C-alpha cells in the first residue's frame, strides 16, 4: 500500500467537509435533530388530534377515585383509593411475582444445570428431560396448564385439603397461618443482625489468619450456627412473643392468615419453571466452557474436588453465565405481563387493563406502563452489568 | 387476546399520532356509502345481544341496531361489517375509527359520554347489575354475600358498581377479574368464585350456557342502573343523528303498531303519525342525508323494537327476559322515543 501524497501545505487545516471526524459528527447531529423533530411532531400532532376529538388528556386522572377492588394488594387499598394507588398496587404485584420468579428460577436453574452434568446417569437424564420439556412449550400454555389443569381441579373451599389444621389448599388458593408479632419481638431481628455481622467478621478474620498461618476454622459452619442459632436462642429466651393468626372457614371463604391466590401460584410456577430451563442450559454451557485442563491443573495442585469447583471452575464459569442470565431475568419480568390471561392483578391487568378502560386515557396509561417495564429492565441490567464487571476476568 | 388488545391500542395511538388535524368533521355517512357497509362494533359473543348463530350470521338486540343503521343509510340491513370487540378494546376501536357504531351492551355513564370523545345515542336496553350464585350455597339475598369471592369482567361498570354496593352495605368481597365473559364463567364454574356478577340480561344469557343451568340462580337484587345503548364518535353530528333516529324509528314503529309484516299495508294508512314515520307525507330523512323511506327500510328489514326484543332476548328466545322496564311508556315501561315530525 502506498502512502497517499499530502497535497496541502503543512500547517493548513483541511476544510471541515474533508475532515472525516467532523463530517461524522455533523451527520450524527443531523440525524438526532431529525429524530427529535419527528418525535416532537408526533407528540404535538397526537395532542392536537386528541383535543380535536374531545378526548381528555393529561395525568390528572391519577388523583381520581378508582372505585374498583383488587384481590391481592401489598399496600393498603380500597375502592376509595386513587388511580395513582392502583398503579402502585399493580407495580408491587408485578415486582412480587418478578422478584420471587427470578429467585426460584435461579435456584431451580442452577440445580438442574449442574444435575445435567452429573456422572449419575439417571439424574443427568432427568435434568435433560426437564429442560427439553419446559423449554419447548410456550409460556402462555404453561401458565394455562398450571392454572386451569392443576389449580382449578383442587377441591372447593368447604372440602379443602388441610395440613394439620393450619395450612389449607383449595381452588381459591393456599391459606397459611400469619405470624403476629407481640411487643418484645424486636430483639429477634436484632440478634439476627448481630449474628450476621459476627459471621462476616469471623470469615474475614479466618481468611487473614489462613493467609498468615495456613490454619483455618470451618467458618462456614460456625456462621450458619450463629445466624440460625442466636435468633432461635433469643426467641426461646423471650418466651416466643409470636401468636399465629390461623385461617378459618367463615361464611364463603377462609378468613384470617395469609392467602396466596391461585393466579399468583400459577404465574409464579410457570414463570420460574419455564425460565429455569433456560438458566439450566446457560449454567451447563458456562461450566462446560471451562477447559478440562483447568480442573486437571487444580487437581494436580492437590486441591480437593469441592475447592476445585468453588475456587477454579465456578468463578470462571460465572463470566460466561452472567450476561445471558441477565437476559433471562429481563425476560421473566417482562413475561410476567402474561398475568392478564389468568387474571392475576399485575400492572398490565389493573392499570393497563381496568384503569385504562375506566378512564379511557390509553396513551397516558400505556406510556406509563411501558416506562415502568423499561425502568425495571434497565435497573436489572445495570445491576447485572455491575455484578458482571466484578466477576469478569481481570486481564493483565 | 393480550396481543390483540395491545395491537388495537397501539394502532389507535398510531392513528392519532399520524393523521392530520384537518379531518375534524369527518364524514362518516359518505365513507359508509363509499364502503358499502356499516362498520359496527359488537361483543365477543353474548347470546341475545350479539352473537353469531350456527351459520355464522350475527344476531341479537345490539346487532339489530347495526342492521337498522345499515337499512337507513344503505337500504340494505345486511350491509354490515361486524367487528367483535371485548370490553377493554371497545372504546379505543371506536375512537380510532376501526368501527363507526359501537353497539355492544355498553353502559351510558358521564365519564364515557364526556371524556372519551364519544356520544351515546340512546338506550336500547335498560339493565341493572345482578348476582348469580350456586343454589347449593343457600343464599337468598345479595345482603348475605359478605366475604364472597366474585367473578367479574375487566373494564366494565360492573367492576365499579359491585365495589360501591359492598362498600355501601359494609361488606367485603374478593374481586376475581377476567378479561372475557367466557373466562369469568369458567372461573364461576370451577368454583374460583362464589358469585358471578354482570348485567342481569347477561347473567340470563350466561346461565343457559352453564353445564347445569338449574344449579344456579340469579339473586333478586338489582344493584345499579345500566342503560345500554349505541355509541358514536363526537364531531360528526349527521352520523350521530342517523344512529340516534334509527333506534327511535324502531321504538316509534312499535308504538304506532307498525311491524315488518304490516309495513307495506301501513304505507296507505290515514294516520298522520304513521305517514310521517314511513316518509309518505314528508321527507324527514333529507336533513340526515337519507332517503324518505329510511324508516320504512328499517321496519321492513329489521322490524320494530318489540319484534327485535321478542326475537332476541324476549319470550321467543331462549333467554326469556320479561319486557319489564323495557316495555313502551304506554305499556308501563320507560322506553320512550321522541316523535318523528
Automatic annotation (TrEMBL), chain A:
Primary location: membrane
GO biological process: amino acid transport
A molecular function (GO) term: transmembrane transporter activity
Domain ABC transmembrane type-1 span(s) in chain numbering: 91-384
Topology in membrane: Multi-pass membrane protein
Matches recorded under InterPro entries: AA_ABC_transptr_permease_3TM (IPR010065), ArtM/GltK/GlnP/TcyL/YhdX-like (IPR043429), MetI-like (IPR000515), MetI-like_sf (IPR035906)
Gene Ontology CC terms: ATP-binding cassette (ABC) transporter complex
Transmembrane segments: 24-43, 55-75, 87-112, 133-151, 184-205, 217-244, 264-287, 365-387
Pfam families: BPD_transp_1
Compartment(s) where it occurs, according to its Swiss-Prot or TrEMBL record: Cell inner membrane; Cell membrane
Keywords assigned by UniProt, alphabetized: Amino-acid transport, Cell membrane, Membrane, Transmembrane, Transmembrane helix, Transport
Entry similarity comment: Belongs to the binding-protein-dependent transport system permease family. HisMQ subfamily.
The protein's name: ABC transporter permease subunit
Automatic annotation (TrEMBL), chain B:
InterPro entries reported in the protein's UniProt record: Bact_solute-bind_prot3, SBP_3_CS, Solute-binding_3/MltF_N
Lineage: Bacteria, Pseudomonadati, Pseudomonadota, Gammaproteobacteria, Oceanospirillales
Keyword Signal: yes
Organism encoding this protein: Vreelandella rituensis
Name the record gives this protein: Amino acid ABC transporter substrate-binding protein
Solute-binding protein family 3/N-terminal domain boundaries: 37-266
Keyword Transport: yes
Pfam families tied to this protein: SBP_bac_3
Record keywords: Signal, Transport
Family assignment from sequence similarity: Belongs to the bacterial solute-binding protein 3 family.
Signal peptide: 1-26
GO BP annotations, alphabetical order: amino acid transport
Top-rank lineage group of the source organism: Bacteria
CDD domains (alphabetical): PBP2_BztA
Chain segments annotated as coiled-coil in the UniProt record: none
Amino acid at each position: 500500500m502506498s502512502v497517499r501524497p499530502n497535497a496541502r501545505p503543512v500547517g493548513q487545516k483541511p476544510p471541515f467537509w474533508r475532515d472525516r471526524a467532523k463530517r461524522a459528527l455533523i451527520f450524527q447531529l443531523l440525524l438526532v435533530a431529525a429524530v427529535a423533530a419527528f418525535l416532537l411532531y408526533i407528540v404535538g400532532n397526537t395532542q392536537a388530534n386528541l383535543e380535536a376529538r374531545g378526548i381528555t388528556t393529561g395525568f390528572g386522572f391519577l388523583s381520581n377515585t378508582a372505585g374498583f377492588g383488587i384481590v391481592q394488594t401489598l399496600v393498603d387499598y380500597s375502592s376509595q383509593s386513587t388511580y395513582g394507588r392502583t398503579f402502585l398496587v399493580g407495580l408491587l404485584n408485578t415486582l412480587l411475582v418478578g422478584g420471587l420468579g427470578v429467585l426460584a428460577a435461579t435456584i431451580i436453574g442452577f440445580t438442574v444445570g449442574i444435575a445435567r452434568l452429573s456422572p449419575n446417569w439417571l439424574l443427568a437424564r432427568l435434568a435433560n428431560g426437564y429442560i427439553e420439556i419446559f423449554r419447548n412449550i410456550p409460556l402462555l400454555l404453561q401458565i394455562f396448564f398450571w392454572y386451569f389443569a392443576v389449580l382449578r381441579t383442587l377441591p372447593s373451599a368447604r372440602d379443602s385439603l388441610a395440613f394439620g389444621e393450619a395450612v389449607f389448599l383449595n381452588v381459591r388458593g393456599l391459606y397459611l397461618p400469619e405470624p403476629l408479632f407481640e411487643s418484645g419481638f424486636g430483639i429477634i431481628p436484632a440478634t439476627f443482625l448481630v449474628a450476621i455481622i459476627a459471621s462476616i467478621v469471623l470469615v474475614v478474620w479466618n481468611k487473614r489468619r489462613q493467609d498468615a498461618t495456613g490454619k483455618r476454622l470451618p467458618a462456614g459452619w460456625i456462621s450458619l450456627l450463629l445466624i440460625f442459632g442466636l435468633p432461635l436462642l433469643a426467641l426461646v429466651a423471650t418466651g416466643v412473643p409470636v401468636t399465629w393468626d390461623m385461617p378459618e372457614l367463615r361464611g364463603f371463604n377462609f378468613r384470617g392468615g395469609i392467602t396466596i391466590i391461585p393466579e399468583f401460584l400459577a404465574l409464579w410456577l410457570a414463570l420460574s419453571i419455564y425460565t429455569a430451563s433456560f438458566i439450566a442450559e446457560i449454567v451447563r454451557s458456562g461450566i462446560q466452557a471451562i477447559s478440562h485442563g483447568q480442573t486437571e491443573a487444580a487437581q494436580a495442585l492437590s486441591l480437593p474436588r469441592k475447592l476445585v469447583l468453588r475456587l477454579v471452575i465456578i468463578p470462571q464459569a460465572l463470566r460466561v453465565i452472567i450476561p445471558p442470565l441477565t437476559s433471562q431475568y429481563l425476560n421473566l419480568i417482562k413475561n410476567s405481563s402474561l398475568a392478564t390471561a389468568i387474571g392475576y392483578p399485575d400492572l398490565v391487568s389493573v392499570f393497563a387493563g381496568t384503569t385504562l378502560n375506566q378512564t379511557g386515557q390509553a396513551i397516558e396509561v400505556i406510556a406509563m406502563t411501558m416506562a415502568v417495564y423499561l425502568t425495571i429492565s434497565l435497573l436489572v441490567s445495570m445491576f447485572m452489568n455491575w455484578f458482571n464487571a466484578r466477576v469478569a476476568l481481570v486481564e493483565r | 387476546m393480550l396481543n390483540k388488545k395491545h395491537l388495537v391500542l397501539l394502532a389507535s395511538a398510531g392513528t392519532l399520532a399520524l393523521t392530520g388535524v384537518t379531518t375534524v368533521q369527518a364524514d362518516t355517512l359518505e365513507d359508509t356509502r363509499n364502503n358499502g357497509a356499516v362498520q359496527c362494533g359488537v361483543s365477543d359473543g353474548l347470546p341475545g345481544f350479539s352473537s353469531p348463530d350456527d351459520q355464522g350470521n350475527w344476531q341479537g338486540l345490539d346487532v339489530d341496531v347495526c342492521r337498522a343503521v345499515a337499512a337507513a343509510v344503505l337500504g340494505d340491513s345486511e350491509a354490515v361489517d361486524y367487528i367483535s370487540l371485548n370490553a377493554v378494546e371497545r372504546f379505543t376501536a371506536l375512537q380510532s375509527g376501526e368501527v363507526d357504531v359501537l353497539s355492544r351492551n355498553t353502559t351510558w355513564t358521564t365519564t364515557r359520554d364526556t371524556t372519551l370523545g364519544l356520544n351515546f345515542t340512546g338506550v336500547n336496553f335498560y339493565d341493572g347489575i345482578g348476582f348469580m350464585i350456586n343454589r347449593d350455597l343457600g343464599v337468598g339475598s345479595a345482603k348475605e354475600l359478605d366475604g364472597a369471592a366474585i367473578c367479574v369482567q375487566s373494564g366494565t361498570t360492573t367492576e365499579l358498581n359491585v365495589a360501591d354496593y359492598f362498600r355501601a352495605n359494609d361488606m367485603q368481597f374478593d374481586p376475581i377479574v377476567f378479561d372475557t365473559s367466557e373466562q369469568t364463567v369458567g372461573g364461576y364454574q370451577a368454583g374460583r368464585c362464589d358469585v358471578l356478577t354482570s348485567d342481569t340480561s347477561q347473567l340470563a344469557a350466561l346461565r343457559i350456557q352453564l353445564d347445569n343451568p338449574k344449579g344456579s340462580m340469579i339473586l333478586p337484587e338489582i344493584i345499579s342502573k345500566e342503560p345500554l345503548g349505541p355509541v358514536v364518535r363526537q364531531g360528526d353530528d349527521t352520523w350521530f343523528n342517523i344512529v340516534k333516529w334509527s333506534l327511535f324509528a324502531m321504538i316509534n314503529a312499535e308504538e304506532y303498531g307498525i311491524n315488518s309484516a304490516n309495513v307495506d299495508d301501513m304505507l296507505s294508512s290515514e294516520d298522520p303519525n304513521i305517514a310521517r314515520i314511513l316518509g309518505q307525507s314528508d321527507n324527514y330523512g333529507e336533513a340526515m342525508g337519507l332517503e324518505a323511506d329510511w324508516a320504512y327500510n328499517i321496519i321492513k328489514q329489521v322490524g320494530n323494537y318489540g319484534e327485535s326484543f321478542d326475537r332476541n332476548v324476549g319470550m321467543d328466545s331462549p333467554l326469556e327476559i320479561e319486557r319489564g322496564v323495557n316495555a313502551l311508556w304506554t305499556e308501563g315501561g320507560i322506553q320512550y322515543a321522541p316523535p318523528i315530525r
